Amino acid sequence: MFEVGGARMNGTAGAELNFSSGGFQGGEGVSGGEAWYIENVLEELDMPTEWHYDPSLQRLYYAPNASGAAAATPPPTSGFASTGLATLINVSGTPTEPARGIAIEGLAMRDTSATYLAPHGLPSGGDWALQRQGALTLVGTEGLSLRGNLFTSLDGNAVFIGGYHRGLRIEANEFAGIGDSVLAAWGDTSECLNEDCSKALPAGVKMGPDGRGGEQPLGTLVRGNLAREIGLWQKQSSFWFQAVSAQTLLEGNVFFNGPRAALNFNDGFGGGDEVVHNLLLNTCRESSDHGPWNSWDRVPYITTIRTGKPSITPATREVHHNFILGNYNSQEAMDTDDGSAYLHTHSNVMVYGDNGLKSDFGGHDHVWEDNLLYYVGFCYGAMFTTFDWQWPGYNDGFRNNTCVFRGSYESDCDLDPSFAANFGQNRVFSADGTAKVCRGKVDFADWQAQGHDTETTLGKWPADAQLVAQAKSMLSF
């Protein structure tokens, strides 16, 4: 989004717009554009419920809804309200003096102003930019509880979680009609760029590689929340966004109707997260090149979370017993992008989407097992057979999964032998019960006779009732 600072006619070239601010809502630069629209132009006031404000005359123009039953209703002449606040409640402390023991319960929060033109920063090495604010802004807390609240008609982030947090609990809240993200967590590291801090970022810019100071959201619980109709203005938005945070438990949440992924992990900081018993559907309705989950891991961080000793290796993230429908424009059931690593994805039911497991650009140590993948394009991302991303000793795994595919099953063709050893014991199904592997060159039976993909079975699509029964058993429905 941009703000138009001025406009003029440029000869035969037509109208020329001067963008005075904006364009910083994403973490990566873009050299081209897509379809676009402009708002708050009087000449474009031609649709019901559109409006235009003229600041010089202090005059509001409004196009009433003149269709259907509303046609008999006189246009409103009063009762208009404009939003003036981006933040309704701000709870701020520090790691040494945190805000402790606060409960925010049973409130309705609504009608905050849009923040997509507010200052943004780059939280870490993912694709996102973010503003450090929400209708509820939380910084530096211990034992804070957010429970049983309604967040609606908020034009920015609903909840921003910044810096130091311990024991934060977000439970049984409803979020609907959110302009940006629902929950966005962004922790801090330190200014130091080397061990003795002789090389450092400017004071207060806590974005170095050392996260051992603990100024992050650690151990956050997000349980039993309902979120829908989000990203009304900012399309790079999600139910849960996490950067420089760790050990989050996302449990039993329901999310649907958003423009992008439901869950975004902007980096691999610390790890130790658990995603369990969530229902995710109707994602990626206005974007592409990802899925209900999106993650990156382009920047190493030093923590002690994995073993208690300093390491850039995070603890494993566990993703299990979730029901994920990759409808709309899902490229993957889980888009573990650009270096994503140290994940254990098991016992999930994943329906539709073009690919199952994905690992690229240095991704490694992502093991998929015991999952049910129904009517996916491919059981795992075709990039395995296109590029040699797998490094010996840093291997993904795909075993003991049930995969009903629409496209093809490539088996372990062209994979590093150390990876192929983690590939097998799967139950795969095609429409007619046959398959060719290695880009359609080899019958699966012949390939398997050469010792590949051991103990994997191939059959015809099962009846839908059988698939539903298996899913119910997996998820204890």
**Major beta-sheet overview:** 13 strands, parallel
Which spans have pLDDT < 50 for at least 5 consecutive residues? 383-387
**Which class of secondary structure composition applies to the elements?**
mainly beta
Distance between the termini: 43 Å
Number of strands: 40
Gyration radius (Cα, Å) is 25 Å
Mean pLDDT: 91
Beta fraction: 35-45%
Number of domains: 2
Count of helical regions: 4
Topology:
Elements: E1 2-9, E2 15-22, E3 51-54, E4 59-62, E5 89-92, E6 99-100, E7 103-105, E8 108-112, E9 136-142, E10 145-147, E11 150-154, E12 159-166, E13 169-171, E14 174-178, E15 183-186, E16 217-218, E17 221-223, E18 226-230, E19 240-243, E20 249-251, E21 254-256, E22 263-265, E23 274-276, E24 279-281, E25 293-295, E26 317-320, E27 323-326, E28 335-336, E29 341-346, E30 349-352, E31 355-357, E32 364-369, E33 372-380, H1 383-386, E34 397-399, E35 402-408, H2 417-420, E36 423-424, E37 427-430, E38 436-437, E39 442-443, H3 444-449, E40 457-460, H4 464-475
Parallel strand pairs: 5-9, 6-9, 7-10, 8-11, 9-12, 10-13, 11-14, 12-15, 12-16, 13-17, 14-18, 15-19, 17-20, 18-21, 19-22, 20-23, 21-24, 22-25, 23-26, 24-27, 25-28, 26-29, 27-30, 29-32, 30-33, 31-33, 32-34, 33-35, 34-36, 35-37, 37-40
Antiparallel strand pairs: 1-2, 3-4, 38-39
